[in-house]
Amino acid sequence: MTLESAPGSSGYLDMFPDRRMSYFSNQYVLGLTVISGISGLLFGYDTGVISGALLYIKDDFEAVKQSSFLQETIVSMALVGAIIGAASGGWINDAYGRKKATLLADVIFTAGSIVMAAAPDPYVLILGRLLVGMGVGIASMTAPVYIAEASPSEVRGGLVGTNVLMITGGQFISYLVNLAFTEVPGTWRWMLGVSAVPAIIQFICMLFMPESPRWLFMKSDKDKAIAVLAKIYDLARLEDEVDHLYAAEEEERQKKNTVRYWDVFKSKEVRLAFLAGGGLQAFQQFTGINTVMYYSPTIVQMAGFHSNQLALLISLAVAGTNAAGSIVGIYCIDHFGRKKLALSSLSGVIVSLLILAGAFYGQSYGSSNSFYGLLAVIGLALYIAFFSPGMGPVPWTVNSEIYPEQYRGVCGGMSATVNWISNLIVSQTFLSVAEAVGTGTTFLIFAGIAVSAFVFVAIFVPETQGLTFQEVEQIWKKRAWGSSYNTESLIEDSSQGA
């Protein structure tokens, strides 16, 4: 069987364009996406809420107010938890399934929210942050894989992008919650504790959701897998999708049954895929996105707007821009492609970071502080406007679709771990670096990293728009083995034909 005639391939869809699905054409898939995407909302809420809560935590705990390191630890301890959660999440996903991994994440996140809300001192608060981070870490790598494995290839990017919209929507909601509780006794406790609500809602809803059909098929529960797929595809296309799964299963059967983390680096094509996926996740963070989201109120105050309420209000506008950009990304990612979207996004990010750097340099040396403060806010808004449609969804979408079936859970967990480790490094060092070399120089460093990211994407990241999982595998095999792979595949096709 050649690639062009592979069941479920984009060639098949070209032959039968009436069977292409649109984003809204299947309410079952859309509902599954939204419920799974609540994981993204938890991710985004936790990212955004701490930026406002930190302003009031400093008021309650003098030790926090006096120590930049303690402030960074409160923010970044959730990232330590996320690293643990993402690193273990790959194994949990492969062993117990996407559904059970999501349920476990909800339980851990809820426990952490309660601990944070009741924390009597900064150290118990840090423990709560660790727990919610573990929940977010598991959820952050589970949701994109779960959505991708249930999505038709022609709308997979947009549906996975919905999870990113939920992340940015969660950040926006967190700023609304921060504003709502600014005058309420126990301000930051409400801000942090209310995050348990969406986790509980998702837990209840997920009890009624199916397991990923691809995971069920991989675990030889084929009847259940086909029952789920029958709710997604019409009969004609269902037969082709099932044939594709049987073909993929046969290929995986010839490989090792158990995949370990080290096996990722033994296979040349999987190693190349992980380089692209992990690299995208690292550059997403090292270009400064979560510095902006965690510390946007602090950055606004650095720019000269000293009122807590005003800082939160301006940050709310920044978060709103982030959410709006994610909606644009859902449309663009399946129409213009992952690679083009990432490159155009990074181009705008570079310019925005240069504006931010210039604003803070100007504030340091100029006399018109109000002008440079306004310029910094404009730079923040532009940064988010360029980042959110491209470098927001592209790393998560690409990582949900570039790995072979057998490696998808492990590699998804490893790439998410890269994201969280990078996130931890940036968030734990931002305030200290800004104090040491200046905020302007810090943003200039981010701009330099963004230039490197542009080069990386141009060289190492392939275009996967509209491709099936099987077609994406062929890309890595060709990159790994070049013309020798093409020759071997032709011999194999000839022998099969004979």
Automatic annotation (TrEMBL):
<keyword id="KW-0812">Transmembrane</keyword>
<feature type="transmembrane region" description="Helical">
    <location>
        <begin position="310"/>
        <end position="333"/>
    </location>
</feature>
<comment type="similarity">
    <text>Belongs to the major facilitator superfamily. Sugar transporter (TC 2.A.1.1) family.</text>
</comment>
<dbReference type="Pfam" id="PF00083">
    <property type="entry name" value="Sugar_tr"/>
</dbReference>
<dbReference type="InterPro" id="IPR003663">
    <property type="entry name" value="Sugar/inositol_transpt"/>
</dbReference>
<keyword id="KW-1133">Transmembrane helix</keyword>
<dbReference type="InterPro" id="IPR036259">
    <property type="entry name" value="MFS_trans_sf"/>
</dbReference>
<dbReference type="GO" id="GO:0016020">
    <property type="term" value="C:membrane"/>
</dbReference>
<feature type="transmembrane region" description="Helical">
    <location>
        <begin position="345"/>
        <end position="364"/>
    </location>
</feature>
<protein>
    <recommendedName>
        <fullName>Major facilitator superfamily (MFS) profile domain-containing protein</fullName>
    </recommendedName>
</protein>
<keyword id="KW-0472">Membrane</keyword>
<keyword id="KW-0813">Transport</keyword>
<dbReference type="GO" id="GO:0022857">
    <property type="term" value="F:transmembrane transporter activity"/>
</dbReference>
<dbReference type="InterPro" id="IPR050814">
    <property type="entry name" value="Myo-inositol_Transporter"/>
</dbReference>
<feature type="transmembrane region" description="Helical">
    <location>
        <begin position="187"/>
        <end position="209"/>
    </location>
</feature>
<feature type="transmembrane region" description="Helical">
    <location>
        <begin position="103"/>
        <end position="120"/>
    </location>
</feature>
<dbReference type="InterPro" id="IPR020846">
    <property type="entry name" value="MFS_dom"/>
</dbReference>
<dbReference type="InterPro" id="IPR005828">
    <property type="entry name" value="MFS_sugar_transport-like"/>
</dbReference>
<dbReference type="GO" id="GO:0015791">
    <property type="term" value="P:polyol transmembrane transport"/>
</dbReference>
<feature type="domain" description="Major facilitator superfamily (MFS) profile">
    <location>
        <begin position="32"/>
        <end position="465"/>
    </location>
</feature>
<dbReference type="InterPro" id="IPR005829">
    <property type="entry name" value="Sugar_transporter_CS"/>
</dbReference>
<feature type="transmembrane region" description="Helical">
    <location>
        <begin position="159"/>
        <end position="181"/>
    </location>
</feature>
<feature type="transmembrane region" description="Helical">
    <location>
        <begin position="443"/>
        <end position="461"/>
    </location>
</feature>
<dbReference type="GO" id="GO:0015798">
    <property type="term" value="P:myo-inositol transport"/>
</dbReference>
<feature type="transmembrane region" description="Helical">
    <location>
        <begin position="69"/>
        <end position="91"/>
    </location>
</feature>
<feature type="transmembrane region" description="Helical">
    <location>
        <begin position="28"/>
        <end position="57"/>
    </location>
</feature>
<feature type="transmembrane region" description="Helical">
    <location>
        <begin position="370"/>
        <end position="388"/>
    </location>
</feature>
<feature type="transmembrane region" description="Helical">
    <location>
        <begin position="126"/>
        <end position="147"/>
    </location>
</feature>
